[in-house]
Amino acid sequence: MLTTTVAPTDGRALIAGMDVRTHAAAVKRRIGVVSQSNTLDRSLTVWENLYYHGRFFGVSRRNAHGRADELLEQFALSERAGAMVYQLSGGLAQRLMIARALVHRPEVLFLDEPTSGIDPQTRINLWRILRELHEAGQTTLLTTHYMEEADILCERIAILDDGKVLALGSPSELKQTLGADTVISLTLDGDPAPLVAQVEAMDAVRTVEQVDHTIRVFASRAEGVLARLVTMAAALNVQVVDAASQPPSLETVFLTLTGREYRE
Amino acid sequence: MRAQLETFLALLARDLRVLRRQFGQFVIRTIMQPLLFVFVFAYVFPKIGQGFQGGQSGISFTTVLVPGLIAVAINFQGIQAVALPLVQEFSVSKEIEDRVLAPVPVWVVGFEKIAAGTLQSLLAAGVVFPIVYLVHAHGAAPSVHIHDVALFVPVLLFACLLASALGLFIGTVIDPRKITLLFAVVVIPLTFLGCVYYPWARLDPITWLKYFVLLNPLVYMTEGLRASLTPELPHMPVWGFMLALVGGSIGLTVVSLRTFTRRVIT
Fold this sequence. Notes:
The complex is a heterodimer. Helix content of chain A is 39%, strand content 21%.
């Protein structure tokens, strides 16, 4: 909707002060979009993809020329300038997509799940590129399913579920809203119920969730809690099969907010 | 406005760049069918003494064929140059998702496709003309002359525009999974029932067919070219084909731009 290709049914959205519904062309001029699927122009070369994109956005011939060269250099694609885009690997194609979205120097760059289904090396490389853009002052709107990615890259995060904003804030703000700092998971070989009752009474513990033989303890501090849990379990004669302590993460914020079942 | 015109011209420049790169393919796909057609019917047939008798005396079959085959080339090119790439962009390559982000209203992107298709149809007409005019057996030369430029130019332009608008319309409404049916269901029937191999006026003995083919846009292209290139052959009244070519082009352009916009904005 913000990129004008889906018509809003209701409400209003402004990009750089322009209404996406009534000033779609002006909005498009101010944004750069990297979609999830490869939308590069298969009939053109790598260099031409950048050049013609610039021309579409009213960049003069000379400037489009220079900008294409410059971006190929910046994204380490110069060697492939003359290649047809269908010859590029997934990672290179994605780099070119980002370069293309930047040709006309957009005020807002949209990235739609840029790291879904790509290999770890490419992902780290991409994160580096995005950080550099961020440092250069590029406003970027990134959508992702990876909470880790949002945590690392973003200054301001909105958690959306079923079309509604559940939370909005900086990563640390969001983590504080959870009301628990550390999540300790224990998997037991017996009935966890008696343990849960005892654990709930502990000072540092806010809530306890139980799924089958696993309990998740939301504690305000990490120190000593895990050790006490294990001792308490031993006293109750239940074996601890697995224990894990997680520092607060956006993942837990997300799961708590959306009420989804916890998945390891 | 000026910025939008610039974007429109840049989109057109991109299409011409691609056309230049694929010019060999363009020529081959454009000339093969008409070349073989005139070779068999205008060269082989007269040579082996097999002909189409019963026509008007003194007018060769090649004369009938010239405007017909040019119209087929225009019509075919409009569909080929606009509909096929579009179907691919919608389904496989998703390129359209990026193209509609160009800073213009979405209909401008569709209109540019019609404009590029019109240019390619014009080019196809130019490439095919010398072939259908020159390839024939001795004594079977077609009698072609443009006696009214003021009629020929608008006929040619609107025929190309109509073909491209038809291409955009087909490209936006066809289900990409059924693209293989395009030729069987659209291109071939349009061609065989497009008054390409016979003038429309000669369909008098088959009244139902004579009126049925009026649904076919190619009929107006062939008849228009027939009236401008080979006026001695019977043809539809000028007002008839001009009305259909101009009205059809404008109408189909408007409709296809709407189907295009509806297809890309969800």
